[in-house]
């Protein structure tokens, strides 16, 4: 079976857009902007994570939990999720407006991303009534933090090769095995877990998708140190872990389809997320501002033509990426590859970000060699750390090379290799 | 860069209809066979294509309603030019549109009345702005004009004058009394043998050097209804936009050719498109193509909403910088991935590569525009 042919048609997933009044929307964003100006937290004494994949200390976790809860309680998180489960039932444009304003004011992220942007939309789409009632609201309040147990030491890009098993045992599922690179694993209350069933069926056809409470007996979590030197993701071990039967989501042995659906949310190829403010996107304006303070070979970095040339290239690319969001709203301008913009979202932005951050280091000249906390480092070494961290997004969620395979096969129609 | 206006695209129903109509027209009328026929015809243009373009009203789009035209803004031409580019359809449409814009921006009422209706009824017009040395900045021409007793006498040569042979009139930039000026030179005023056909990479193009040595025209032919420098700057923007649009189309055409080859050519027991070295390079081209379209339609929107000069300049220079590099790169890879066939004159990939090389040189190459963008974006 083809890995890609069963991705849900994203046009049906994003089609939830309702008519919405431009004036209402404008007013709403304005009101939210005002709320943010009063209520957005100031910078704490410790460095905040730039993305949800970088939450590594308890103080970061507590800070971001409080912040997310206060946004929700003010009525600005999950506004396009249904009212009966804790949302406000507004058109998706209202959530987009919030995301844009958050990015614009550069406020801390909505860190419970796996809940808000992947597990949440998934449960709303195909979960049972009980699952919706039990989980959705608590995702928004950050009472329940979620993590994702897909990758294993022997299975990443080749996800169907996982070895962790979840088999029926009376009224329960019994889970054994281990997961790795689990973002937020040490803080999570629940995990979306992909595991082999006991059908004996090969790869794609024999998987189960479970919603697993992390407090279950037999689960052990170990933190892993990232290349930045900080703590990031985790390794999670399952040793005869029992969870109730109704933890299954989707069909039994239909886990692959559920996992692929989850990945379309994760890669931004499908809508329904309660927040897309999952990482402070490095706006080029911030980088340019930093560059005005950087010295390259004894002179201002921005007087170096080769640096300017590369920077301008990146600005053009950024402009194109931003324009895509507007162009895709005109179906007449979709062109011969109508799914290309959505399906390439992750690849375009993450690769752009990686190159921008790398340039931000190089243009510091000799000082580009300094790192976090050195008193002479530009912006405390944030650009250096930013570059190292940029790989989180070019590798996590399916590496760029896999994204290119998907685009080649699904958008251009090239044959599978 | 979070200026929301700079990243919004508007696309009217009218533009949508023009896109559909022009795509159909270009596909039907400009298959590879007709492109090659046109090449073989050397100096001449395809009259029937031009007549149809005129009949569909495209030549008349930019002419104001008061002078018998449709009075649309230049963004209306973008979908048409994109479609033409995709199918390598070459016509004097861009030349005529650029001349029209100069008349509209810099001509007096009487001058507009004199020449604009001609455009509507099918006359080809062009601009003669580039000079030996190849400067892309158009506001400081070196061709000299001297006025005495109501006669303007020109002296100098223009290069890269597109469609000059067909043009009923040319709009020539010159220095008159130390100021840039625009002079309309009708065909009849050109001296014999003043046109030399330039041999250009893109064989679908008709391009000339024009000698204006000792050409004399009545002083009434000097455009005197608007600021010439502003008109020339605006023309740079429109030129950048239209050639970017044509290149975005061409890029799409090259990509389609490439994808078709990758799915049909077999090696080692299957289509070559299954090899990742080719796949990933082709995806890069796809992303370049998508970016080209967004930048082009974005620039069209910007220019049509006439914001400050800087916003237009940033938008069109970005479009031209991107499409120039991306189109050449796409064709370069398309040749390579066609193997030995790609090296032949017979393979259609060369038509796109030659078009790309030609277009990137017109109205400024990628490096030129990035250099111009740096102070606009980084200070
Ligand atoms: C910061 C971070 C956070 C993460 N968080 C989570 C998480 O919360 N939950 C979770 O389940 N996983 C998580 N991951 C894991 C992530 O999904 C995997 O790392 C990713 O899918 C790649 O798998 P891998 O690490 O096994 O690399 P591999 O699959 O071994 O890939 C190694 C290299 O080979 C390339 N490659 C592999 N297959 C192909 C192919 N067919 N064609 C071309 N190139 C190929 C890849 O592109 C890559 O460059 C996280 C990863 C990172 C970096």
Task: Write a short abstract of this structure.
Chain A is an alpha+beta fold and 417 residues long.
Largest sheet of chain A: 4 strands, antiparallel
Mean pLDDT of chain A: 91
Ligand types: flavin-adenine dinucleotide
Q: Can you summarize the main beta sheet of chain B? A: 6 strands, mixed
Helical stretch tally of chain B: 12
Structural class of chain B: alpha+beta
Low-confidence stretches of chain B: none
* Model regions low in confidence, pLDDT < 50 over at least 5 residues of chain A: 1-18
Strand content of chain B: 5-15%
Number of domains of chain B: 3
Strand order, main sheet of chain A: write it out. Answer: 2-3-7-6
Distance N to C terminus of chain B: 13 Å
CATH topology heading of the largest domain in chain B: Butyryl-CoA Dehydrogenase, subunit A, domain 3
Number of H- or I-type helical stretches of chain A = 13
Q: Give the termini separation of chain A.
A: 13 Å
> What proportion of the residues of chain A is helical, as a percent range?
40-55%
CATH class of the largest domain in chain B: Mainly Alpha
Rg from Cα of chain B? 21 Å
Class based on secondary structure composition and strand pairing of chain A: alpha+beta
Q: Which pair of chains forms the biggest interface, and how many residues does each contribute? A: A-B, 51 and 48 residues
What's the architecture of the largest domain in chain B in CATH terms? Up-down Bundle
Please provide a written account of the structure.
The complex is a heterodimer of chains A (417) and B (379). With 417 residues, chain A is α+β, with helices and mostly antiparallel strands. Chain A has 3 domains: 22-145, Butyryl-Coa Dehydrogenase, subunit A, domain 1 (Orthogonal Bundle); 148-266, Beta Barrel (Butyryl-CoA Dehydrogenase, subunit A, domain 2), CATH 2.40.110.10; 284-411, Butyryl-CoA Dehydrogenase, subunit A, domain 3, CATH 1.20.140.10. Chain A contains 13 helices and 9 strands. Chain A has helices at residues 10-14, 22-39, 58-73, 92-105, 113-126, 129-141, 255-266, 284-292, 305-327, 340-343, 345-362, 382-395, 400-411, and strands at residues 146-149, 165-169, 172-182, 190-196, 207-213, 219-225, 231-244, 295-296, 299-300. A 4-stranded antiparallel sheet of chain A has the order 2-3-7-6, with no helix packed on it. A 3-stranded mixed sheet of chain A has the order 1-4-5. A two-stranded antiparallel sheet of chain A has the order 8-9. The longest helix of chain A has 23 residues, at 305-327. Residues 1-18 of chain A have low confidence and may be disordered. With 379 residues, chain B is α+β, with helices and mostly antiparallel strands. Chain B folds into 3 domains: 3-123, Butyryl-Coa Dehydrogenase, subunit A, domain 1; 126-221, Butyryl-CoA Dehydrogenase, subunit A, domain 2, CATH 2.40.110; 228-378, Butyryl-CoA Dehydrogenase, subunit A, domain 3. Chain B is built from 12 helices and 11 strands. Chain B has helices at 13-29, 32-40, 47-55, 77-86, 93-106, 109-120, 228-264, 276-304, 309-336, 339-342, 349-361, 366-378, and strands at residues 125-128, 144-148, 151-155, 157-162, 169-176, 179-186, 195-197, 207-211, 215-218, 266-267, 270-271. In chain B, the strands form 3 sheets. In chain B, strands 1, 2, 3, 5, 6 and 9 form a 6-stranded mixed sheet that branches. A 3-stranded antiparallel sheet of chain B has the order 4-8-7, with no helix packed on it. In chain B, strands 10-11 form a two-stranded antiparallel sheet. In chain B, a hairpin with a 2-residue loop joins strand 10 and strand 11. Chain B is globular. The two termini of chain B are 13 Å apart. The interface between A and B is large, with 51 and 48 residues. The structure holds flavin-adenine dinucleotide (FAD). The site of flavin-adenine dinucleotide (FAD) has 21 residues of chain A, from strand 1, strand 3, helix 12 and helix 13.
